[in-house]
Amino acid sequence: QVQLVQSGAEVKKPGTSVKVSCKASGYTFNDYYIHWVRQAPGQGLEWVGRITPNSGGTSYALKFQGRVTMTRDTSINTAHMELSRLRLDDTAVYYCARGDYTGSPIPHHAFDIWGQGTMVNVSS
Amino acid sequence: QSALTQPASVSGSPGQSITISCTGTSSDVGNYNLVSWYQQHPGKVPKLQIFEVRKRPSGVSDRFSGSKSGNTASLTISGLQAEDEGDYYCSSYAGSSTWVFGGGTKVTVL
Prior knowledge:
The structure holds 2 protein chains of 2 kinds. Chain A is 0% helix and 50% strand. Chain A is mainly β. Chain A has strands at residues 3-6, 10-12, 18-25, 32-39, 45-51, 58-60, 68-73, 78-83, 92-101, 113-114, 118-122. The radius of gyration of chain B is 13 Å and the shape is globular. By secondary structure, chain B is an all-beta fold. Chain B has strands at residues 9-12, 18-23, 35-40, 47-50, 64-69, 72-77, 86-93, 99-101, 105-109. In chain B, strands 1, 3, 4, 7, 8 and 9 form a 6-stranded mixed beta sheet that branches. Chain B has a 3-stranded antiparallel beta sheet with strand order 2-6-5, with no helix packed on it. Chain B has no helices and 9 strands. The A-B interface holds A 35, 37, 43-47, 50, 59, 61-63, 95, 97, 107-112, 114-117 and B 1, 3, 32, 34, 36, 38, 45-48, 51-52, 55, 57, 89, 91, 93, 96-104.
């Protein structure tokens, strides 16, 4: 079945970096965008950015530009999100989510499949 | 890229209908028919309920419907059931390959 499986929970110190992975299965990885969304404890969803697996092209929310880097390894159908210069308020569950088919002439701009989430705890 | 505005909470009795609003700007909700809605139960992963303002993915109950007027989109849940309790988030395409979410609405079935 179509699924996204993420890497395990992380505990990090402020000022360091974290890299979260998202492995796709059940569909052609190169054919769909991968988005990253985070959710701080008790808070709402926040869009972080998107990567195009085929080309590696990225788009980031203004808030994270300069601190986030999204990459992919097409040989293992995996997308990565690295967040640097971590702050206490980066503590959140980070989700990867599948976006549109990259070849769609009429994109839906919705996220239909979600990973299970990765808890990142930034603590001194 | 400011978050879309949703009411913090909405409640209703079983069988009733409730509506959740999602207000954005002319740069996001008002400019694109690309609003989606997500249901999230406590401790669970968000689930797509509505896309492109009013379309339902396969398997989503027709008790869920979406609409939009100007800069405000709405999600209506008809025939409210206990299983509908949870948090609901709207999202809109905001141009230039960016997206924005709403702050979320907690739905309580009385």
